[in-house]
Amino acid sequence: MVNRDRHEIAIEILNSAVFGKRKTEIMRDVGLSYLQARLYLNEFVERGLLQIDEKRVLKTTKKGLEFVEKCKACPLFEWDKKKLKTLI
């Protein structure tokens, strides 16, 4: 398995929570430890990329979806993936 950078992890988390999921579901879907999930999810909530409802369900916000779109549109993000494929 190739190591993921922070942007890839962020995109996976935000994509996983589009329709709303609990923390443990996101951890399982993205493959994060409890500590990693706590750090990322707390940061995303503070920055307004995720929101938490009264049932402790995390959901990606409009700002979070915009972040994902900007990351996908970045040519440098795609360049790294293409470079890795040629190295493997």
Outline:
Helix content is 65%, strand content 7%. The protein has 88 residues and is mostly helical. The radius of gyration is 14 Å and the shape is globular.
Main attributes of the structure:
88 residues, mainly alpha, Arc Repressor Mutant, subunit A, 2 strands, 65% helix, globular
Q: How would you characterize the overall build of this protein?
A:
The protein has helices spanning 6-16, 23-30, 34-46, 62-73, 75-87, and strands at 50-52, 58-60. It is mostly helical. The protein has one domain (6-87): Arc Repressor Mutant, subunit A. It has a two-stranded antiparallel ribbon with strand order 1-2. The radius of gyration is 14 Å and the shape is globular. The mean pLDDT is 86.
Overall CATH architecture: Orthogonal Bundle
Query: Largest sheet at a glance?
Result: 2 strands, antiparallel
| C-alpha end-to-end distance | 11 Å
Structural class given helices, strands, pairing? Answer: mainly alpha
Q: Within the CATH hierarchy, at the fold level, what is the topology? A: Arc Repressor Mutant, subunit A
SSE ordering: HHHEEHH
Low-confidence region ranges: none
Helix content: 55-70%
**The CATH top-level class label:** Mainly Alpha
Share of residues in strands: 5-15%
Number of domains: 1
Query: Judging from the principal axes of the Cα atoms, what is the shape?
Result: globular
* Rg estimate, integer Å: 14 Å
Number of strands: 2
| CATH fourth-tier homologous superfamily | Winged helix-like DNA-binding domain superfamily/Winged helix DNA-binding domain
The number of distinct helices, counting runs of at least 4 residues, comes to 5
Task: Trace the largest sheet across and list its strands.
Answer: 1-2
Q: Please state the average pLDDT score.
A: 86
